[in-house]
Amino acid sequence: MTDAPTPADRLTDAEREAVLARDRVTDTLAVLQHRLDPRKVARQTARDVGDRGSALAEASLDTARRNPGALAGVAAGLGAFVIGRPILRFFRHRREARRIARFQVSPPAPNQGPDQ
Q1: How confident is the model at residue 1 (pLDDT cuts 50, 70, 90)?
Q2: Domain ranges of the chain
Q3: Rounded to two decimals, what is the model's pTM?
Q4: Which of 39, 40, 45, 71 is the most buried (most CB within 10 A)?
């Protein structure tokens, strides 16, 4: 005689497995909802960005202390980029004004001959 499960036993086992599976899914959803809470994600992201930002600032300061010449070069390049356009405009305007003045016809000089 074999102990084969009856259809009623198989149904009961299947229902028990379904309940356990449903409980596991519910637990998983609860964990995901807790992890993916928008406020929690925003706080964690802000904390991570702050940590990385401060680490980047410290590394930048250390590099600047070790290489002051490079820092001066970067500062000069940024200064030239910011101030360069107005300076170029100034010289371009002067050059253009000289070119225009060179081609302008001056008014005729008044006659200073014996006729007057």
Answers
A1: very low
A2: 8-66, 68-103
A3: 0.37
A4: 71
CA-closest candidate to residue 101, choices 109, 113, 93: 93
Spatial neighbors of 59 by CB under 8 A, at least 6 apart, are none
Q: In the structure encoding, which two tokens stand for residue 62, read together? A: 């250390």
Q: How confident is the model at residue 27 (pLDDT cuts 50, 70, 90)?
A: very high
CA of 26: how far to CAs of 34, 36, 92, in Å? 12, 15, 73
Q: Are the beta carbons of 17 and 25 closer than 8 angstroms? A: no
Is the distance from CB of 71 to CB of 64 less than 8 angstroms? Answer: yes
CA distance 21 to 15: 10
